[in-house]
Write a structure and sequence with these properties.
It contains nine helices and two strands; from the N terminus they run H-H-H-H-H-H-E-E-H-H-H. By secondary structure, it is mainly α. Helix 1 crosses helix 4, helix 4 runs parallel beside helix 7 and helix 7 packs across helix 8. The chain is elongated.
Length: 206
């Protein structure tokens, strides 16, 4: 009878995910994961081709949680605004994970950035059912909305400012309406915040 594998892919991934939530993406090294799981580094390289593959799996898990749970809370009955408020709450409750999603001032993962954009587009279409904006215009509106939302979250998390929910909703509503009327992102082909690597993995981590 074959011996049951004690250190499998799922266990390693769960340990790595918890490490990222607690200490950020920079903590994700083979040695740190092995130490946290009380095993050698050998199972990591048996289950994953490289640390980049493991990081990608962790970021995919974060993206899935963002899409299906974190960004689905209800506050005002306005889907796009509710997504923003969900993200701001998430940033405060999981500060290290919030910080882990950024590298050099922008998203360290195309997986994460694509998830935020796609959820935002879905929420915009849900909130503005009668909108006749093109897909490109809607994406620009959503990117502008994320810039504002992430900015507010960063101010709060870093203790620079504090806002009531009503103040946040007022700012977000004004920004969304302005972005609908004035497509101020149309003249640029790239927004550095969402300019990520194509592999979906952290650029710095080894």
């Amino acid at each position: 009878m074959a011996r049951k594998k004690e250190i499998g892919r799922s266990k390693i991934l769960n340990i790595a995910y918890k490490m990222v939530v607690k200490d950020g993406i920079e903590s994700l090294t083979a040695r740190n994961i092995a130490k946290a799981g009380h095993f050698s580094t050998q199972p990591l390289y048996l289950e994953f081709k490289s640390m980049d593959e493991l990081r990608t799996e962790v970021l995919s898990k974060i993206a899935e949680n963002l899409k299906n749970e974190i960004l689905q809370k209800k506050y005002t009955g306005q889907p796009l605004i509710d997504m923003d408020l969900s993200y701001i709450d998430f940033a405060q409750e999981h500060e290290n994970l919030f910080r882990a999603m950024f590298v050099d001032g922008k998203f360290g993962s195309k997986i994460i950035s694509d998830t935020l954009i796609n959820v935002g587009i879905s929420k915009f279409k849900e909130q503005f059912k009668d909108s006749d904006n093109s897909n490109e215009k809607i994406k620009n509106i959503v990117v502008a909305n994320w810039i504002t939302t992430i900015g507010i979250a960063s101010l709060i998390v870093n203790g620079i400012a504090s806002f009531s929910q009503k103040q946040i909703v007022n700012v977000l509503s004004a920004q969304i309406n302005d972005a609908i009327l004035n497509d101020w992102l149309s003249e640029t082909s790239q927004v550095s915040l969402f300019d990520t690597d194509d592999k979906g993995s952290n650029k710095k981590g080894k």
